[in-house]
Amino acid sequence: MDVSITEYAVQRGVNPQTIANAVRDGRITRNADGTIDSEAADREWEAHSRSKISAGPSGPQQKQGAATTSATEPVAGMMYADARALKEVYDAQRRKLELEVRAGELISRTAVERAAFSRFRMIRDACLNIPARVAPLLAGEKDEAKVFSILEEEIRRVFTDFAETNLT
Question: Tens digits of per-residue pLDDT, 134-157?
């Protein structure tokens, strides 16, 4: 199907100037009437344009825009426009994270790990102290149900205290 440069640019999803440059550089040929045979141009575009990039030394070659291991992963040989778009994505993600930190919706991983370690150390210590606290009570008990009740009550108290402890 014969189309204009602008129509072909729309089909390819690129700027018309990109198509004009490809025509000027001889990567796409025009018909005598100035139109472009879109099917032939597609073949020429694939064969002559710099739309292929390497996925790295271990990976196969892929077209730009094709899914890579990560949508925001830079690749050697990346076109300037794609690198610029990737930079903008990174900048937007960074600004979003900074905003979430300032709003108090996001905290550092290190702070979370430190708090979790502290909380679990606290419950571990409380559980390990149960025998020292209940041994005198259990020593005088002969009723198995009463021993069970004392142990259950003490364990429940440890976990209730843990659950009610303020996280801040």
Answer: 999 899 889 999 999 999 999 999
